[in-house]
Structure formats: C-alpha cells, structure tokens
Amino acid sequence: MDWNTLLADEQQKPYFQTMLAQIKQQRQHGITIYPSDKKLYQALELTPFEQVKVVILGQDPYHGEGQAHGLAFSVGNGIKVPPSLVNIYKELASDIDDFKIPTHGDLTSWAKQGVLLLNTILSVQQGNAHSHAKLGWESYTDKIIELLNQQKQNIVFILWGANAHKKGKFIDQKKHCVLTSVHPSPLSAYRGFLGCRHFSKTNCYLARHQLPIIDWRISDKQLSLLA
Fold first, then answer.
1. 60 annotated active-site
2. With bands split at pLDDT 50, 70 and 90, how would you rate the model's confidence at 224?
3. Whole-prediction pTM value?
4. How many CA atoms lie within 13 A of 196 on its CB side?
5. Are 107 and 74 in contact (CB under 8 A)?
6. What is the pLDDT of residue 1?
7. Contact 86/203 with Cβ under 8 angstroms?
8. Are strands 54-58 and 33-34 parallel, antiparallel or unpaired?
9. Distance from CA of residue 212 to its chain's centroid?
10. What is the DSSP string of 110-121?
C-alpha cells in the first residue's frame, strides 16, 4: 500500500481542497510559499509507507529563502545549518559512535533509510513562521500518523517539544516506541534534549525487534541532488 492510495480519500475532503486553493491563491498574489509545490510531499515521496521505521516530527517548514525542501529539520545544499539542527548534530556526536558533524544540513540519507521527517504543517509563507497553521495541514498529518499507528507496528516515534507531544497523544505505545523530549531549539535544548540519546535508543529498539538499524552518519561526500 502506498501513500497515494492511503491518503486518496483524505485529499478529496473539502478542507484539503480548500487549503490547496488558498495556497494557490496566495502564490498567484505574489506571496512566496515554501517549499515549492513539487517538494510539498517530499517526506512521503522519499520514505514510502511500507519502509517507515522511524518518525521524527517537526513543526512547520523553515521560512527563509532556500531553506525548506520538504523534510523536517533538513535544509538544502549550500544553506547554513539552522540552530535546531546544530543541536541535533551535537546530540548525535555524543550519542552515536563515529558520527562526525557534517558541513551541511541535508538529511535525505535518513529519509531513504525509513526515517519519515514529517512536519506537522507542510507549507509556510516566506519570512512568516506558522503562517499556514490551522490552514488544514494539521488534519492531514494527523491522518498520516493515524495510518502508521493503526496499520504498522514497531515504529519509533521521536517527538520533540510540546506541539509534537500533543500530535502523538493517540499513538499506541503497546505497538510502537515513543520517545519524547524538549525541542532542540537553542531556547530549550539544554533543558533535556542534549543527553536524551534518542538516536541510540531508536537503534536499540529496532535491533530488539529484528529490524535494520538507522545509519545516522551523514557524509559530506554524498550530498543529495534534491535540494
């Protein structure tokens, strides 16, 4: 079963059609929306339903020029690594053997291994954080999490920050592993994110259930062409 089939009914609902029409109208009025239309569903395209092993839940896309490319916490090639991702890299360096902090912020290699890098909201106006909150994306991404929760098992859900915690409130923790912490932003990372060891805990859980672990290392030599 693929995402297009699973989400076909959801995409026909009035709220979803209205939301897409609003986004199209904003673009027509000269408002820059990130990411581009072709990358709105990048997370789903790079991580098919059957391959999902881990979900890392973000909020809304980065709203600076060139940053968002459809994957939560990730930025395209040649873009300065954002502060939250800097802290994610710091945690990885202390948690995972042989992890070397890369010079870029492209997390495509994780997505291709089954890590669904899903933002709660999939679009944003340039320079206007949370501008597409309550436009309809929250219901859509709720459906994505519901499908994973109901139809799969032994997924690791990584939820950082209060918004992500609320989003995961209905996940069945008898079927899945839920890891929670504060958000990795500079405002909160030192209150529990740094030292959470979520990456090694994820691999321990996957190994315990005879599932392939994630290679969290990110090569500077294999930059994605998707940015």
1. yes
2. very low
3. 0.95
4. 26
5. yes
6. 84
7. no
8. unpaired
9. 20
10. HHTTTEEEEESS
DSSP 82: P
Q: Which helix (H) or strand (E) holds 42?
A: helix 42-46
Q: How many Cβ atoms are within 10 Å of 184's Cβ, its own excluded? A: 24
Instruction: Tokens 């990730």: give the residue.
Output: 74
Name the DSSP class of 160: E
Candidate list 37, 60, 95, 220, residue with the active-site label? 60
Omega into 35 within 30° of 0, i.e. cis?
yes
- Residue 86 pLDDT greater than 90, yes or no: yes
Token pair recorded at residue 173: 């923790």
Q: How far apart are CA 162 and CA 170, in angstroms?
A: 14
Q: 20 or 77: which carries more pLDDT confidence?
A: 20
Is residue 124's pLDDT more than 70?
A: yes
C-alpha–C-alpha distance, residues 133 and 138, integer Å: 8
pLDDT number for residue 220? 82
Residue the block writes with tokens 């899945």 = 176
**How far apart, in whole angstroms, are the C-alpha atoms of residue 94 and residue 117?**
21
Check residue 210 and report its DSSP letter.
T
The arithmetic mean of pLDDT across residues 5-33, rounded, is 97
**Res 221: pLDDT:** 63
Provide the token pair at 19. Answer: 């939301």
